[in-house]
Design brief:
By secondary structure, the protein is mostly helical. The protein has one domain. The protein contains 11 helices and no strands. The chain is globular.
Amino acid sequence: MIRPSRTAAVVLRHLYLLRGSPARVLPLFAWVAIDIVLWGFITRWLNAVSASGLDFVPLLLGCVLLWDFFIRVMQGVTMAFFEDVWTRNFLNVFSTPLSNAEYVAGLVLSGVMTSAVGLAVMIALASGIFGLSFLAYGLPLVPFLLVLFLFGIALGIVGCAIVLRLGPAAEWLIWPIPAMLSPFAGVFYPVSTLPGWMQAVSRALPPSYVFEGARAIVAGRTAPAGPLLVGVGLALLDVLAAAWLFNRVHRRAVRTGLIARYSAESVT
């Protein structure tokens, strides 16, 4: 059973870290602001030079915003974990009565708070500067964000498990994950443009259902409920699988003594 006070202690530690270091606060909104401004002007330019009649602001900028939200959620979880990696704090954390579930829940809540800051900045810039109206998405915006939120949590937990198993040097394996997934997720183009084997991979990725639904809304159609439900179901399964993986990796690290040997040089 998860005790809220212990989970809150994990969250509080990260809040203290943020409060005491402006260098940790700035990345919460700086990179997303750069992305939104860059893609916002690209979409304006495409609207000016294109004769297709498409409005690229909701078509591209809206998808960039959704994808950045997913990245913020994933990195919010992993960054909270990496703080313990960089300070070699694992022995202190896991020598307490804190359970795996309470620790992971604290990481997730920390990721929720940091991603909420990024989402607020993205929405403010996209709507205030480039006129992107999120009312156009309607109620489907809720399951869109839910799918991306759950999948971001799942990948964040998987990233934590990888680093816990392979050591701090393995964090460089985590940063490219969103970029590696984006071609399969169909962020900027329909999944139907992909070759068959890539479409098969796309069907296993929850974000692909989000972006297909978003393009349907921009095209004036309603987002199909069936695929969105499939995306939600896949995302929930991914969260459960990620939690199982982290628990298994942690047990192995404790059993083999890897946590006691945990250092910046341990990569095997």
